[in-house]
């Protein structure tokens, strides 16, 4: 039996509740969640295959898109298989170390994705404001370094989260996590002892990633719009803005769900717990589903290559 009273203990496992309050509907909830996860995997793998097969897409914008696809696959795969196992088999048990690893992957790659969006904003800025030097500034090596920098930032920012829990908070009031995955605050609130350092660090990282990245992206687009408004003809303005459309949609798809989920978690005390958990899980599905759709629909080169591959079933020469 799991400890659920006020006595503190050192757990070896945690117990994830899935969607609290909707346990009787778990088997039915598995249908939309499983379907969305499958669509996300197929869509992002398709993007990776199309860009890999088509040499004309070997450009900075599409390399960044491939990074987004890999990150979305990691994020959704970090949570959805366990959620589906809870829904289908009642496999709610998760080891403490496995819980901390899941926590690291979730928060780390969410941070990495924000960094990639920042790098994509820089790419669009150079492409529109200094097009003559775009290929010389954003070489393949520079794109790789920007991706590596985003990854290292995620590891450096998020690495201390599970370490501080492991080293500072060995005792817990209960092993039951009222969540479907090991979210940082959901675990910290169960701990015995002083959690202020963990809380402050988590909030500080959230500020650095969400607020500063979004401000930097906004600043880049302010400069982009100023440059576009200075173009001579309306056709040139529309063409320049059209190259940013997919990126803007992807940014909104990423930041809006996480902002809504964060706000409801911190300030929506009257919101039912199952709404919190559903919103948190949709955050790991909506961007992975919609990002490939947005880029496939709005990007002519990807759309044409995808249709060609589907039509011929062979790699174009």
TrEMBL record:
PANTHER family xrefs: OLFACTORY RECEPTOR 56B1-RELATED, OLFACTORY RECEPTOR OLFR553
GO terms for cellular component: plasma membrane
Iron recorded as keyword: no
Protein name (database record): Olfactory receptor 52M1-like
Lipid bilayer topology: Multi-pass membrane protein
Transmembrane intervals: 25-50, 62-89, 101-122, 142-165, 205-229, 241-263, 275-297
PROSITE patterns in UniProt: G_PROTEIN_RECEP_F1_2 (PS50262)
InterPro entries, per database record: GPCR_Rhodpsn (IPR000276), GPCR_Rhodpsn_7TM (IPR017452), Olfact_rcpt (IPR000725), OR51/52/56-like (IPR050402)
Assigned keywords, A-Z: G-protein coupled receptor, Membrane, Olfaction, Receptor, Sensory transduction, Transducer, Transmembrane, Transmembrane helix
Signal peptide region: none
G-protein coupled receptors family 1 profile domain sequence ranges: 43-295
Functional description taken from the UniProt entry: Odorant receptor.
Organism (species): Carlito syrichta
Subcellular localization, as worded in the UniProt entry: Membrane
Gene Ontology molecular-function annotations: G protein-coupled receptor activity; olfactory receptor activity
Pfam family, one: 7tm_4
């Amino acid at each position: 039996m799991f400890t659920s009273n006020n006595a503190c203990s050192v757990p070896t496992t945690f117990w994830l509740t899935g969607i609290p309050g909707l346990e009787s509907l778990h088997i039915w909830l598995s249908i939309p969640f499983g379907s969305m996860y499958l669509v996300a995997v197929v869509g992002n793998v398709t993007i990776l295959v199309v860009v890999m097969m088509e040499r004309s897409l070997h450009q900075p914008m599409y390399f960044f898109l491939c990074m987004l696809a890999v990150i979305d696959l990691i994020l959704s795969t970090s949570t959805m298989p366990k959620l589906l196992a809870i829904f289908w088999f009642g496999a709610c048990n998760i080891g403490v170390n496995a819980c901390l690893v899941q926590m690291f992957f979730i928060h780390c790659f969410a941070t990495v994705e924000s960094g990639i969006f920042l790098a994509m904003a820089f790419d669009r800025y150079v492409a529109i404001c200094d097009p003559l030097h775009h290929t010389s500034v954003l070489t393949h090596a520079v794109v790789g370094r920007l991706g590596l920098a985003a990854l290292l930032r995620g590891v450096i920012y998020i690495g201390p989260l599970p370490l501080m829990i492991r080293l500072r908070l060995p005792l817990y009031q209960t092993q039951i996590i009222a969540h479907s995955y090991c979210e940082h605050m959901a675990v910290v609130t169960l701990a015995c002892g002083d959690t202020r350092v963990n809380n402050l660090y988590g909030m500080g990282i959230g500020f650095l990633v969400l607020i500063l990245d979004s401000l930097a992206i906004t600043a880049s687009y302010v400069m982009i719009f100023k440059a576009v408004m200075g173009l001579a003809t309306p056709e040139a303005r529309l063409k320049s803005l059209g190259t940013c459309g997919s990126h803007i949609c992807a940014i909104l798809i990423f930041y809006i769900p996480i902002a809504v989920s964060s706000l409801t978690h911190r300030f929506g005390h009257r919101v039912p717990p199952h709404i919190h958990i559903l919103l948190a899980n949709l955050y790991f599905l909506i961007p992975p589903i919609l990002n490939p759709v947005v880029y496939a629909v709005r990007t002519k080169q990807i759309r044409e290559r995808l249709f060609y591959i589907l039509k011929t079933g062979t790699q174009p020469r």
